[in-house]
Here is the input.
Amino acid sequence: MRHFAIASLVGCLICTGLSAGAANGDVRFDETRWKAAQVGSAASVRLKMLDDLVSSHHLSGLARDAVHSLLGAPMPYELAPDDEDWYVVEERYHDESNQFEEPYLQRHLIIKYARNARSPSMLYIETTTDVPGTKKVKVSRVPLK
Here is the structure.
């Protein structure tokens, strides 16, 4: 009974988050627009498509090369383990015209693959905020069915 209550609560929170996302201007995932998106913009189209990408299970059951075909090449990130692909979803800068400064907010989609599995095993959304004197990193696991 306790597990059912917890599962119900998690389900409600996910549905509420997805509904709130739709009210915030989310759009349906579109492969062409995802690949063409300029992620340095505060109004990143990737951020607006993220809920639909995750909730519609576009990644479930896809082989890694099919994920790369759908989303484009992952970002080069030398610290990422071999079993993870990182995609920039959003970056915000204090001065949007100066893309050479470090962003104060970054949001990444991290796709993790199990050792022997060819398809994604877990998704994470990592949000990093860096304001003077304080750096915060929040990682949220996203269910993948």
Observations:
- Strands lie at 84-92, 105-113, 120-131, 134-142.
- Helices lie at 2-23, 31-36, 45-55, 64-71.
- Residues 1-23 have pLDDT under 50 and may be disordered.
